[in-house]
Each structure stands twice: as structure tokens, then as C-alpha cells.
């Protein structure tokens, strides 16, 4: 028994309930610390177990007469309305306590155990960005958006915005209605917001209007994913800085064959 979830309905834990169990992850879902019996946990548990408590309840547990014994107490943002764009999170599977991380070698989303997750590594950290009422999961290291698989258990990555419906579930956040696998966004206090997220999301092209003025090149430059590359910049001046590809300038597609030296 290495991972334990104590539901919100539990308000007390009996004597020797988990004594001797090598628990690595313990999630307690009640906002008020449950009462604890004599030696409900082993002394080693206080040193080696990560205790996950509801968002906003760190103080209640850290200053409780019993629960303060746990050396590693973490808050979880279990409800979707508590997910804020200015925060960074680790994305934990609420069923088996593995973490979804970006694998830069294979350019994909993989999983690591709680021992392997590193909050200082941007590849292991996510942001939840809300735009026009829709929520998106964004990996800070990959600078890409997560797209859940059909069963919700895994993710692919996309450079374009992909909507992820987040609702509250029994054990965590349900993504796109998949209750088989539920996720918890665990607050990461050591990492700040990646400001490029806002640029990627809010500048996506919603409409292109061609004003018919072929000589007016003083307009924003977009790539085909709808991302603003340059703001109110003369295209001829920016051309030497752009990579080879197709761009939208003044409502028209423009091909850049190669960057000038």
C-alpha cells in the first residue's frame, strides 16, 4: 500500500490503521483535519510520505496538533474553479499518483512517479489557462497544449490551442468527461507563470479582413496557427527575421522562402 486516498466523508482515523504501511503519497480530502488515533501511521511516514490536502487548507494541517508531524504537506487544486492562470501546477493522476510530464527526447507526454517529479523542471509543470470560458492545459517546458486521449488516461501535445473541459470528479478533475482517469493539479509554488502563454492564446486569429490596400504592410504578422509573430511591423523589415514558411500579412498568405543573412 504505497498510495492512499482518504475521502471527505472520513473525519477520524483509527489506531494503527496504516501503521507499518510504506506510504509514499497520502491524499486527505476533508478540509478539516481528521482526528487521528494512537500510532495510526508509522514514524517513518512523517518523513517519507507526501501529504496532499485540499486547496487553502495547508495551514489547517500544518498547524494541527497531529498532522504537523508530516514534513511534506502539499495543497491540491481539486476543483476546476480554483484553477488560476497565474499559477503553475504539477499534473498528478489521482488514481495511481503518477505525474504527467513532458519528455523532450521523444517530444511526448510521459509519466513519472512522485519520486521522479521535479517541480523546478519546466517540463514537469503545467498551467491552466482560461480564455472565453474555455480551459486549456499548457506545458511550460514544451510550450505546447495537452490534448487528452479518447479515454482521458494520456495526452498528446499540440502547438495550437486545444480546449479541455474540466469538471469536478470524485477523486480529482475530470478531463473531457472521462471519469476512468481523474487528475489533480498540484500547486507548485516554486515556479512563476510563463508569460508566453497569454501571447499564444489571446492573439489567435478570429477573423481576417482584407482592406484591399496591397501597399499597406504595416500590419500584425501571424503564422498559420494564429499566433501573432510581430505587432504592427513593416513586413519587409521583418522578412529577414522570419523563418522559412507561410505567414498571414494584411489578410493574405505570404511565403517566406528563406531567411536573409
**Strand composition percent:** 35-45%
Kindly state the number of beta strands: 20
Going by CATH, the architecture of the largest domain would be: Trefoil
Count of individual domains: 3
Order of helices and strands: EEEEHEHEEEEEEEEEEEHEEHEE
In short:
This protein is mostly beta strands. The chain is 8% helix and 38% strand.
Protein described:
This protein is mainly β. The protein has 3 domains: 74 residues, Leucine-rich repeat, LRR (right-handed beta-alpha superhelix) (Alpha-Beta Horseshoe), CATH 3.80.10; 115 residues, Trefoil (Acidic Fibroblast Growth Factor, subunit A); 54 residues, no CATH class. The strands form 4 sheets. Strands 1, 3, 5, 6, 7, 8, 9, 14, 15 and 16 form a 10-stranded mixed sheet that branches. The termini are far apart. About 9% of the residues have low confidence.
Can you lay out the helices and strands and say which pair or pack?
Blueprint: E1 3-6, E2 12-13, E3 25-28, E4 35-36, H1 43-48, E5 50-54, H2 58-62, E6 72-77, E7 88-93, E8 99-103, E9 108-112, E10 126-131, E11 134-139, E12 144-148, E13 155-158, E14 166-168, E15 173-175, E16 178-188, H3 196-202, E17 218-223, E18 228-234, H4 235-238, E19 245-249, E20 252-256
Parallel strand pairs: 1-3, 2-4, 3-5, 5-6
Antiparallel strand pairs: 6-16, 7-8, 7-16, 8-9, 10-11, 11-12, 12-13, 14-15, 15-16, 17-18, 17-19, 19-20
Amino acid at each position: 500500500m504505497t498510495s492512499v486516498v482518504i475521502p471527505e466523508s472520513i473525519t477520524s482515523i483509527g489506531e494503527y490503521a496504516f501503521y507499518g504501511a510504506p506510504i509514499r503519497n497520502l491524499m486527505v480530502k476533508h478540509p478539516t483535519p481528521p482526528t487521528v488515533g494512537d500510532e495510526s501511521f508509522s514514524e517513518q511516514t512523517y518523513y517519507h510520505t507526501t501529504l496532499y490536502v485540499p486547496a487553502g487548507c495547508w495551514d489547517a494541517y500544518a498547524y494541527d496538533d497531529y498532522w504537523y508531524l508530516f514534513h511534506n504537506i502539499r495543497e491540491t487544486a481539486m476543483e476546476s474553479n480554483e484553477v488560476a492562470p497565474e499559477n503553475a501546477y504539477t499534473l498528478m493522476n489521482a488514481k495511481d499518483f503518477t505525474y504527467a510530464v513532458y519528455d523532450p527526447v521523444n517530444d511526448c507526454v510521459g509519466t513519472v512517479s512522485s519520486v521522479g517529479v521535479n517541480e523546478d523542471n519546466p517540463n514537469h509543470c503545467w498551467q491552466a489557462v482560461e480564455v472565453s470560458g474555455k480551459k486549456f492545459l499548457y506545458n511550460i517546458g514544451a510550450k505546447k497544449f495537452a490534448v487528452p486521449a479518447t479515454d482521458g488516461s494520456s495526452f498528446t501535445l499540440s502547438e495550437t490551442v486545444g480546449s479541455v473541459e474540466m469538471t469536478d470528479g470524485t477523486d480529482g478533475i475530470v478531463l473531457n468527461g472521462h471519469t476512468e482517469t481523474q487528475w489533480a493539479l498540484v500547486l507548485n509554488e516554486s515556479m512563476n507563470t510563463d508569460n508566453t502563454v497569454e501571447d499564444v492564446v489571446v492573439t489567435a486569429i478570429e477573423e481576417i479582413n482584407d482592406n484591399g490596400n496591397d501597399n499597406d504592410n504595416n500590419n500584425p504578422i501571424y503564422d498559420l496557427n494564429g499566433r501573432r509573430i510581430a505587432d504592427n511591423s513593416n513586413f519587409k523589415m521583418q522578412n529577414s527575421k522570419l523563418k522559412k514558411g507561410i505567414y498571414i500579412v494584411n489578410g493574405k498568405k505570404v511565403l517566406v522562402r528563406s531567411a536573409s543573412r
